[in-house]
Amino acid sequence: MLWAMRDIVKKYRPPSLSESKGFIEERIVVSELPMISFVRLGECSLSKSEILNKLLSNSQQYHDTFVHRNMEGGDSPRRISNGLVEMTWYLLTSAAVFVFFDALDSECELLTNQNHKAQIFLVGNRQSNFSV
């Protein structure tokens, strides 16, 4: 699957080259990139796909990359898992996990368990009544 991305190049300036204003270019298929995950916890009125589309789109030219319920044809029923994810896998392999939620129990093990390497970012809906 990575072969399709062989022509994508990432360009960055490591701290060691900051003085010389130099940079490094390398193909993303051979570079180490952190994985960032976006998941929903329980019933959630926020559409993570719609939010990601807004974050990733150019401000002058909006583009739907991910299918979401508010787009034409986006409200079709799910056939496979209805949003089921293996949260443990995301916590062990991701550098960061963004968790979208409407309601969150203060005793949720996601917040108290520190046996994972991922940084957890909670994205709550201000419209709903939630407490942490």
Task: Name its key features.
alpha/beta; 3-stranded parallel β-sheet; two-stranded antiparallel sheet; URGCP; Up-regulator of cell proliferation-like domain-containing protein; VLIG_GTPase
DSSP helical segment count: 3
Largest sheet: 3 strands, parallel
Instruction: Based on Cα principal axes, name the global outline.
Output: globular
Please state the structural category: alpha/beta
Question: Cα-atom Rg, whole angstroms?
Answer: 18 Å
Fraction of residues in H or I helices: 10-25%
What gap, in angstroms, lies between the N and C termini? 40 Å
Poorly predicted segments? none
User: Oligomeric form of this entry?
Assistant: single chain
Strand neighbour order, sheet with most strands? 3-4-5
Number of domain units: 2
Strand content: 15-25%
| Record field, number of beta strands | 5
Average pLDDT reading: 77
> What's the order of the H and E elements?
EEEHHEHE
What does this structure look like?
This protein folds into two domains: 1-31, no CATH class; 34-124, no CATH class. The model has no long low-confidence stretch (mean pLDDT 77). The strands form two sheets. The chain has a three-stranded parallel β-sheet, with helices on one face. It has a two-stranded antiparallel sheet with strand order 1-2. With 132 residues, the chain is of the alpha/beta class. The protein contains three helices and five strands, in the order E-E-E-H-H-E-H-E.
